[in-house]
Amino acid sequence: MIIVFGCVAVKFLQESIPAILIVILVTGLIGGFVFGLTLPVIVSSNSERVASYEEVAAQSAVQEATKLAVEMGVDSPEYGLAYETLPGAEKYDGPALARSMPIETKEAWLSWMRNNRNDSPVFLEERWQLAQAFVGSSELKRPEDVRAFLLTPREHFVRARNRGLEYADTWLPIGHGATITDPDVVAMMTTTLDINPGDKVLEIGTGSGYQSAILSYLTKEVYTIEIIKPLFVETDQLYRDWEKSYPSYGSINRKLGDGYYGWEKYAPFEKIIVTCSIDHIPPPLLRQLAPGGIMVLPLGPPGRQYIMEVKKDIAEDGAITLTRRDVYNGLRVSFIPFRDEIGTSYSTSPAEERVTVPPPPPPPSSKPENPLEEVNLEENNLNEEPSGTDQAEEGDPEV
Questions:
Q1: Which of 40, 307, 314, 322 is deepest in the core (most CB within 10 A)?
Q2: DSSP 287-304
Q3: Is 3.90.79.10 the CATH number for 62-353?
Q4: Where along the chain do its domains lie?
């Protein structure tokens, strides 16, 4: 039946269509059929190798966790993955936003926050009360520091395991053997840095990300280094998640690496803050501190650290003079140790490589006055000792 139908069709085509067109039509059909069968084979034989699941997962993790990842050579002092904001990129002006925020009264501040920010109203009252306490204890002094503290939601940086303790004046674990520092210590170290807009500030120990977030409202030039890779990736992703609502986080240059050697590429720094304990000043950090610069760090053996302000001056003959001050006047604190990439504490480094700072002088008899006249926060009943800096005893938790 099919053969008969085919013969009839051919006879019809011969009578209706010129023979040359029939040849072209049949040739085209045959060519298309053959091409359709061979194309997948041709494409497959010339395509790149299909990546494994592990390769795809690894690549996705890097892309999702970082803005920039550049593989460095093994002989480079920055060997490994370096993550940073591109130099020269337009950076959000966090200090300008801070200057626009009223802090004369709680009502004015709350009104501004509701109209200009996306912060959860649940935490605003707690943040205001904590700022009041720190102004009263002189742990926040300048209006600029108060504004930076009030603009930074600590609840973003306290990990899920400690929900409900966002504004407790204590250290909290964040995993990976690290902690988020007591908010009063963060306030005091920030105030001690005396940051001006345009200062280049280096933080050693990104940790939770809270300290650098505060710094981003004091200057656009914030650089931070974290040595614990999973903690770095976690905090870097946290910044990226919040960057749309809090664009100053996008101005924070962050790097995975050993903070002991600083960040030579962007030195010198007018201010350096170290958030892990060590018994000497790392020489590379001292070299990268600009003349007239300030470094704040917890100095001392385990369990007996003092938060020290170190000022660097260079004479005409090149002689370096270090002036130090114990910011808590003899009160001791405990921080997690400053470690290298294999976990060894730098406090065990050879003595000849250390720049030591002698013990602090006896504390003054009276508490310094609070010079913050511009900030009229509500009065507080506070103890004479700054909160959250009780003297550390042997066996106390590290913060």
A1: 307
A2: HHEEEEEEEEEEESSTT-
A3: no
A4: 2-45, 62-353
